[in-house]
Amino acid sequence: MAGPGLLAAVAAVLVVAIDAVVRRAHGWAREASLGAGRRARLPPGDMGWPVVGAMWAFLWAFKSGDPDSFIGSFIRRFGRAGMYRAFMFSSPTILVATPDACKRVLMDDDGFAEGWPKATVALIGSKSFLTLPCEEHRRLRKLTAAPINGSDALSTYLGFIDRTVAEALRRWSDAGEIEFLTELRRVTFQVIVQIFLTSADDATMRALERSYTDLNYGIRAMAINLPGFAFHKAFKARKKLVSVLQGALNERRVATTKGLPKSNMDMMDRLIEAEDEHGRRLDDEEIIDILIMYLNAGHESSAHISMWATVFLQENPEIFAKAKAEQEEIIQNIPPTQKGISLRDFRKMEYLSQVIDETLRFVNISFVSFREAKKDVSVNAGYLIPKGWKVQLWYRGVHMDPEVYPDPKKFNPSRWEDYSARAGTFLPFGLGTRLCPGNDLAKLEISIFLHHFLLGYKLTRTNPSCRIRYLPHPRPVDNCLAKITKVSDEQ
Which residue positions does the secretion signal occupy (predicted)? Predict the structure, then answer.
């Protein structure tokens, strides 16, 4: 009779054999239609098991606290090819993790379209920027860019952001222990809603915030619309969000019909009135999907990066002192007649900009983006991306690559001094025509917050070694439980 050790060995061999057979069969099923010639040009990799593909490995890497191990596993198995084939989000996919290949895909609008997962498109909206063809995308960006990132718009928003941040820091310093990230998300949400819906009352603000928070947690989930899954809860939240925004739209249209005057033009008003060169206006569904997209782009990254930059500054006294000295010099040079900081002062924050760029690189809020090949495309020494296949651009892989950024796991703002990142090496907001539409507003919000924090406050975390959760965005599991202390109170 075979002993337990032999049986265990036989079982292990059978598991390995079955795994190899299933992987090979799944790969053949997904790649057979390409033909031998095109298959030979695919980058290295494998399709994994049916249905799940590499999704379990992806989720395990991010949920175990070692997100870099996902791409690392491909490098370990297949070498530093920089491109790998896999099965992700229910689709044959090419993973791209080198600067040159990322640049090529992001800049090639003829070869690639947006290719976001079904869950993301369903939650953000099919008429947002995520899925639109190039011409329609350009039209919408042109209609919406100036009210978000234009100099006049930023100057208008700056005063409100400045007052909101200053008041929030005073309030937090009196509150004792707070969830720092939660409070920051409320502030940045308040700012973005003020830009979109100037007349929103507190009840509308709370309804929008609750619904958006639930929606956001489903954006990177699999599109399983069953109770208990993140997407199911998020999809219900989208319906509530749409209902609130539709109600606001209806009120605006009724007011316009009655000829009622408008006290302040906000983003919703501008979208209602926007016309292209052919006189075409946006319908309600387009407006709502654009607003939901901007809600995501306009406040989520701002809150998380503000939190992480604050944490890194507090953890690095030399960096803190240098950043604070720059802000003190800016304050000293403000004319007596000027109230608060101006856009010109913001543009003098050179070292603080380096701190923010290093935080964006280090934290990787947007760790991946998605495209789809519109035709067969050769990239990175002739590897084939077949028509119809998805493409995942692993920004995190680029930002944490020691060949691109020496000692990548060290927080070092000085690496940006007198340095201009080569196209494709720094991708926190993407690249090309699909560059994040709210990037300038986000940096303005982050800079103003850090300006006030550096000049008068300190952060003391309750759990400085708190575990990090990486999905949908990197954050401490306690949402950075901490005390904000006014520095003058300690002197």
Answer: 1-27
Domain extent, residue 434, equals 114-363+401-490
Pairing outcome for strands 369-373 and 390-393:
antiparallel
**Cα separation of 85 and 103, whole Å?**
18
Ramachandran angles phi, psi of 471, nearest 5°: -120, 140
Residue 33 lies in a domain: no
289-318 residue pLDDT tens: 888 887 776 667 899 999 999 999 999 999
- φ, ψ of residue 3 in degrees (nearest 5): -80, 170
Lookup result for tokens 């947002």: 128
What's the CA gap between 111 and 366, in Å, rounded?
23
Cα–Cα distance for residue pair 40/244, rounded to 1 Å? 52
pLDDT tens figures, 210-234: 888 788 777 767 788 888 888 889 8
Q: Which parts of 336-424 are beta strand (E)? A: 369-373, 377-379, 383-385, 390-393
Neighbour-count burial of 10, counting CB atoms closer than 10 A to its CB (0-12 exposed, 13-18 middle, 19+ buried): exposed
Q: Is the pLDDT of residue 323 over 80?
A: yes
Sign of the four-CA dihedral 358, 362, 367, 373: positive
Residue 1 in domain: no
pLDDT reading at 236 higher than 70: yes
Examine residue 99 and say whether the peptide bond preceding it is cis (omega within 30 degrees of 0). Answer: no
**Residues forming beta bridges with residue 485, ordered by sequence position:** 458
> Looking at 163-256, which runs of residues are DSSP E strands?
177-179
pLDDT of 21: 86
Beta bridge partners of 84: 95
| Rounded Cα gap, residues 52 and 55, in angstroms | 5
Q: Which two tokens stand for residue 119?
A: 């869950």
In a domain, 183, yes or no: yes
Domain count of the fold of the chain: 1
Closest CA to 224 of 293, 122, 94: 122
Measure CA of the first residue to CA of the last residue in the chain; give whole Å.
80
Q: Looking at 332-480, which runs of residues are DSSP E strands?
A: 369-373, 377-379, 383-385, 390-393, 457-461, 468-469, 475-476
Q: What is the CATH number of the domain that holds 331?
A: 1.10.630.10
CA pair distance 464, 482, nearest whole angstrom: 9
pLDDT for position 298:
63
pLDDT at 146: 67
169 token code pair: 């820091």
CB 408 within 8 A of CB 397: no
What one-letter code names the amino acid at 32?
A
Give binding residues for heme as ranges. Answer: 436
Smallest CA-to-CA distance from 182 within 485, 480, 414, 489 is with 480
- Looking at residue 380, the DSSP 8-state letter turns out to be T
Q: What does the alpha-carbon distance between residue 182 and residue 430 come to, in Å, rounded to a whole number? A: 26
- Tell whether 102 is covered by a domain: no
